[in-house]
Amino acid sequence: MSKDLIENMGESKKAPLQSKKGVTYIVGHKNPDTDSICSAIALAEFKRSEGEAGVLAARAGDINPQTAYILDRFNVEAPLFLPDVYLRVKEIMTTEIDTVDQHSPLIKVIELIRGKNIRFIPLVDERQSPVGILTPMDLADMNLVQAGDESSRLVFTSLGNIAETLKGEVYSDA
What we know:
The structure is a single chain. By secondary structure, this protein is an alpha/beta fold. The chain has seven helices and six strands, in the order αβαβαβαβαββαα. The strands form two sheets. It has a three-stranded parallel sheet. A hairpin with a 5-residue loop joins β5 (121-124) and β6 (130-134). The longest helix is centred in the first third of the chain and has 16 residues, at 34-49.
């Protein structure tokens, strides 16, 4: 058995910590024994042979001496070491985000929410800097009129917003 392999069992080939979208890691249990390591290697190889791209064998713990001996004996590299298997926010976040100018008519936001079935819209200023968010619940709350509350029925808008909402034109604003 290779002396280097045993001495570096916990250090061999660490997986990069940055996100790798499109990569599937096949991992056994946290304190891997020979069957866990060999199963991860075999399943990853099988999936690749079936045409599945981006499949890698990995391990969640150190390799024991028996497993190191077997890997060395058959000249197989130890799987990547993953220090943890928790998802990171950056691995699941959405990077293509629709935004709406904060001065846009509400109908534009409603159409965007309905059309794309999204749960919130970031509102931006003239420099595209975020200034807030608008959710369907915000829209619902705005449209619920409290009995006897006449001030909730007042709408402050511009003639341009009314024209945009109605898909019309302003002929005179005098």
